[in-house]
């Protein structure tokens, strides 16, 4: 079974009455069956995203082979996406390994350089039917260990977003409209009017990073306002690690490892199902 790029997966999602796709961070292979169980039980397509750190830890090809195998056996349309990568060489490695979607993150660069580099990635990816995400503006919080200070947060402007999309033709654009990477306490404050104006100006799928800190009400409103890809990672990781801490503390050294991991995986499945339900 082939892996779908983002555009292909979004078409499947829309045909199944989903307004947006959840893109879920995979931190270890043990989580992978839990992802597919959630997708199967909700009749949802599945987008799995990998940080560069996780890809290097597990191996790009192992990830592709594992995801493709489960996508085929579970009959779940699946996209494998490299998230937040600023190194074009690593993006090429992911594409060569079989990733079906990539993100070039040039949000820390000046606009002109971000556009030039994004276009380079698009030129490479389009030859392989791989979708490309880019980012404009600086989203707060921490992503894969790299923190953005509160004073460095820059919201995406309508004018910049339109210019960026017009000059790159990117498949999807991550925008800074009030969410925060890594938030699992507190509540993000989405600037819905800004989001609506960017949606109208770009006519391009927009991406919401930092989906963990968004209330259900705000999430539904953001999806209705133009967000078509929602990144969720921290909430799953917190649940998985929390359950593992509980079970390992109570376990014995000669217990089967699966006994420690099954409750954690069940918690991940539950988080995915709850999030997917918001995208209908």
Mean pLDDT: 91
**Uncertain runs with pLDDT below 50, 5 residues or more?**
147-152
Form type: globular
Strand content: 15-25%
Cα-atom radius of gyration = 18 Å
Query: Termini distance?
Result: 25 Å
Portion in helices: 40-55%
* Strand arrangement in the largest pleated sheet: 1-2-3-4-5-8-10-11
Could you give a short account of the major beta sheet?
8 strands, parallel, barrel
Protein name: Class II fructose-bisphosphate aldolase
Pfam families: F_bP_aldolase (PF01116)
InterPro entries: Aldolase_TIM, Class_II_FBP_aldolase, FBA_II
What would your notes on this structure say?
With 280 residues, this protein is an alpha/beta fold. It is built from eleven helices and eleven strands. It has helices at 6-15, 32-42, 52-58, 60-74, 88-97, 111-126, 158-168, 192-202, 216-224, 234-250, 257-277; strands at 21-25, 46-50, 78-85, 101-104, 131-136, 140-143, 146-148, 172-175, 180-181, 206-208, 227-232. Strands 1-2-3-4-5-8-10-11 form an eight-stranded parallel β-barrel, surrounded by ten helices. A three-stranded mixed β-sheet has the order 7-6-9, with no helix packed on it. A hairpin with a 2-residue loop joins strand 6 (140-143) and strand 7. Helix 6 packs parallel to helix 7 (158-168). The longest helix is centred in the C-terminal third of the chain and has 21 residues, at 257-277. It starts with 5 loop residues before the first helix and ends with a helix.
